[in-house]
């Protein structure tokens, strides 16, 4: 299966799960008298819209290069990631606002069966986090990484709700607000994760050259090409799931322009064959 197709299937997996869980959380929160669960449902609902955004972004970023976008459309992926972070911040603000209002308003204790619901949700969300994160690492996708952290954020809010409801039930009358304080704690975790998602995507947009392992792999592969005696500058820009490379390679200074040109093409073809995640590769020949 191609990388774009695997990424799209992963997002669809997340989308279907979020739709199902949002409904369960909302119903359990309403009938179980738990705002922490309702807050959890709000975040899952926001996750549905962000998953749709990621899906659209991945489809667009997978489009091939054209006259207006000679390096492809991969930069759409971190831009979509920014929107996803915005959705997460919005959901955290919404949850916090409502939790503060609930703290000031007397309400009933949560139902004990909501703990069972939360336990099942936590297990599913943590499993989903590891599935999506593993695929994000495999595909080098910042959008999928953001999607994975959506699952982890959801698991964290559910853990906070579990703790809050447990305290409320154990403490009894007068401890109802523990459920609402749990929702506030969850907001803090969500905002913390927002930075972890936002920072790598910003680096991708700013073309940060922080791909030391890939640079070392490129240099190693380059030395296997006949005629290449060494490498000098190597700059990498990430765009979606592809890496665009500018490489200065050393050849015998006595070679003709035609011979040097041929070696450059062989080097380019070899790099793209041995390292499939490479996109555009520009080779500059230096005499040694």
UniProtKB/TrEMBL annotation:
Keywords: Membrane, Transmembrane, Transmembrane helix, Transport. The keyword Cell membrane does not apply. It is found in: Membrane. It is a multi-pass membrane protein. It comes from the Bacteria. Its main location: membrane. Residues 212-287 form the Cation efflux protein cytoplasmic domain. It holds the Pfam family ZT_dimer. Residues 11-202 form the Cation efflux protein transmembrane domain. GO terms for cellular component: membrane. The chain crosses the membrane at residues 12-31, 37-58, 79-100, 112-133, 154-175, 181-198. The keyword Nucleotide-binding does not apply. GO terms for molecular function: monoatomic cation transmembrane transporter activity. PANTHER family: MITOCHONDRIAL METAL TRANSPORTER 1-RELATED. Belongs to the cation diffusion facilitator (CDF) transporter (TC 2.A.4) family. This is Cation diffusion facilitator family transporter. It comes from Algoriphagus boseongensis.
């Amino acid at each position: 299966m191609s990388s774009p197709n695997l990424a799209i299937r992963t997002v669809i997996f997340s989308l279907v799960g979020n739709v199902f869980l949002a409904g369960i959380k909302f119903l359990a929160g309403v009938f179980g008298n738990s705002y922490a669960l309702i807050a959890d449902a709000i975040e899952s609902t926001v996750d549905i819209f962000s998953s749709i955004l990621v899906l659209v972004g991945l489809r667009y970023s997978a489009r091939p290069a054209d006259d207006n976008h000679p390096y492809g459309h991969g930069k759409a992926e971190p831009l979509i990631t920014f929107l996803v972070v915005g959705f997460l911040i919005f959901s955290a603000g919404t949850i916090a606002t409502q939790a503060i209002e609930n703290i000031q308003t007397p309400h009933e204790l949560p139902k004990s069966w909501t703990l069972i619901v939360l336990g099942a949700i936590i297990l599913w969300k943590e499993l989903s986090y590891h599935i999506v994160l593993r695929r994000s690492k495999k595909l080098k996708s910042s959008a999928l990484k953001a999607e994975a952290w959506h699952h982890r954020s959801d698991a964290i809010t559910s853990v906070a709700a579990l703790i809050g409801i447990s305290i409320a039930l154990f403490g009894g009358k007068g401890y109802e607000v523990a459920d609402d304080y749990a929702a506030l704690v969850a907001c803090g975790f969500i905002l913390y994760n927002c930075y972890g998602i936002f920072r790598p995507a910003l680096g991708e947009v700013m073309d940060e050259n922080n791909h030391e392992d890939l640079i070392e792999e490129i240099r190693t592969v380059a030395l296997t090409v006949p005629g290449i005696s060494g490498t000098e500058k190597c700059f990498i820009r990430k765009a979606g799931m592809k890496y665009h490379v500018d490489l200065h390679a050393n050849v015998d200074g006595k070679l003709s322009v035609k011979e040097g040109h041929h070696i450059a093409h062989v080097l380019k073809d070899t790099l793209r064959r041995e390292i499939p995640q490479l996109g555009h590769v520009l080779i500059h020949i230096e005499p040694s």
